[in-house]
């Protein structure tokens, strides 16, 4: 299992680098859409068994994201409202959802929630890429650093369980470790940002919001992980899929990103607007 995980991780890393630095403009949006369609199929599989429904749901998800990404007139009107709605969902509704441990009772609610989780993630990944490769990689790396820090701190000193009925392995000490990890990472990024103009600009525009934003993203990453864990528990499955050997499905790999990246992209748009009109 460990060998499979390592090999899959290396293959994904190489693929990601190749796609990020491709000179063909259509390559990255296509990758984002394909990945989103695969995640949507897995989401549908958590609730429906019919392959026709799963495929139809995945295709519709891809079409929604494609219209917003590829058509400028739709992109300019819908992007910011979608990020705002996504932020409200993750920062207000999901915490209540997890505390009360709601279970889907409606097909429509399951479908709408899936689009609210996956479509903003696709849009955020594409939008962050337009800000620069380094900006996108750093945005994802914040969540990876958070996850690794939480794991090792939780293993070392974790005592108080965060959500034992959802994910017995997570602890409050691990959450603290995640926050400390991303703050340390934030200091490193400020020092190395001199090597990338776009990343330096993002940090400059963020100003004193830089570290609170990183801590918020770390907490959202934990929340995204817990949310998918709860959905899988409700569905009675260990993994969302099988397409990534040693890792499970696409949703298993992007669960934390689904909560953090739309908020990261939204914060970036907000900061840019604030800088433009001298709000901050």
**Series of H and E elements:** HHHHHHEEHHHH
Proportion of residues in extended strands:
under 5%
Largest beta sheet, briefly? 2 strands, antiparallel
Alpha-carbon distance between the two ends: 49 Å
- DSSP helix fraction: over 70%
Describe the model:
By secondary structure, the protein is mostly helical. It has one domain. The protein is 79% helix and 3% strand. It contains ten helices and two strands, in the order ααααααββαααα. A two-stranded antiparallel ribbon has the order 1-2. α4 packs across α5, α4 crosses α9 and α9 runs antiparallel to α10. The radius of gyration is 18 Å and the shape is globular. It starts with a helix and ends with a helix. The mean pLDDT is 90.
In short:
With 280 residues, the chain is an all-alpha fold. The chain has helices at residues 2-20, 27-45, 51-70, 72-100, 107-130, 133-157, 172-192, 197-206, 210-235, 250-276, and strands spanning 161-163, 167-171. It has one domain (2-276).
Give the topology.
Layout: H1 2-20, H2 27-45, H3 51-70, H4 72-100, H5 107-130, H6 133-157, E1 161-163, E2 167-171, H7 172-192, H8 197-206, H9 210-235, H10 250-276
Describe the structure using short key phrases.
10 helices, 79% helix, 280 residues
